[in-house]
Design brief:
The chain is α/β, with parallel strands linked by helices. The protein folds into 2 domains: 139 residues, 3-Layer(aba) Sandwich (Oxidized Rhodanese, domain 1), CATH 3.40.250; 123 residues, Oxidized Rhodanese, domain 1, CATH 3.40.250. Helix 6 packs across helix 7 and helix 6 crosses helix 11.
């Protein structure tokens, strides 16, 4: 395990591209001290090019339960980590496409199952490639290791009943989807094939689009900018927060910002998100587009 110290000017849960470049020889080594993990919706991008020494995970097939709409079991997740040479002591640096959508979800899973030595690569895949940093098509093979998860730790995960209680309670609900999803105009972003029967949002939720967290280059905005973004929307650290999106991946980015960058003490990701809530019989839904216009960025 590498000593956990700040590796960027914003958070000790982030590593900079420069930090990773310096450690690429260690990442390529079979020694389990450091692993780079690329997580995408599928592994097409990974096979085109990836960071030297990085292993590739497919969000759909590797980070979902194999028989039901759920997270992988503790045993399945442990086996997945172990087969890539990851132990409980490994420093894991995750990155991926879409400004770390799926990598943030993997980071959240690592936290849920108790892996403390985990980080996100600031800027993700796009920033790394566009900065002309080293890439390869070589797929590494590491010695399998035994992994024993410490979790799950439920304080980072929200369920439908938690969301129901939050509607009339002090917990702040944050919907990170596009404004058109929030107001019910569309059921899912273009090109996405998983959606709910009804559009809209959970009553009382505020709309802070996930992309408001990142700069044009895909790196996270400054701490001051992020603090102002959420303070202005009434999302403050003195209240518990539940974040959600459509299937829990975009909301993982916002969970990361609130929990790991800003240090809010109680933030949970509702991974069932709108795919579950919008299909529940009897679940309350708001569709008034004037109730909360959110942030118009994509």
């Amino acid at each position: 395990m590498v000593e956990r110290t700040p590796r960027s000017d914003r958070s000790d849960a982030l590593v900079s591209p420069e930090w990773v470049v310096e450690r690429l020889p260690e990442a390529r080594s079979d020694d389990p001290s450091l692993r780079l993990v690329e997580v995408d919706l599928n592994t097409q991008f990974y096979h085109e090019e990836h960071l030297p020494g990085a292993v590739g995970l497919d969000w759909r097939s590797d980070l979902q339960h194999d028989r039901r709409r759920d997270l992988p079991s503790a045993r399945s997740f442990a086996d997945l980590l172990g087969v890539h040479g990851i132990t409980e002591e490994t420093t894991v640096v995750a990155y991926g496409d879409n400004a770390n959508w799926f990598a943030a979800h993997f980071y959240w899973l690592l936290t849920y199952y108790g892996h403390d030595d985990a980080y996100l690569l600031d800027g993700g895949r796009e920033h790394w490639v566009e900065s002309d940093r080293p890439t390869t098509t070589a797929v590494p093979s590491f010695t399998s290791r035994t992994y024993e998860p410490a979790g799950p730790f439920e304080h980072v995960r929200a369920y439908r009943d938690d969301v129901r209680r939050a509607i009339d309670g002090r917990t702040r609900l944050v919907d990170v989807r596009l404004p058109e999803e929030f107001d019910g105009t569309v059921l899912a972003p273009p090109g996405m094939d998983e959606f709910a029967q009804r559009g809209g949002h959970v009553p009382g939720a505020v709309n802070v689009v996930w992309s408001a967290n990142v700069a044009p280059d895909g790196r996270f905005k400054s701490t001051d900018e992020l603090e102002a973004l959420y303070r202005d929307r009434g999302v403050t650290p003195d209240r518990s927060v539940i974040v959600y999106c459509r299937i829990g991946e975009r909301s993982s980015v916002t969970w990361f910002v609130l929990s790991e960058i800003l240090g809010y003490p109680s933030v949970r990701n509702y991974d069932g998100s709108w795919t579950e809530w919008g299909n529940l019989i009897g679940a309350p839904v708001e569709t008034d587009p004037s109730s909360d216009p959110g942030d118009g960025s994509v």
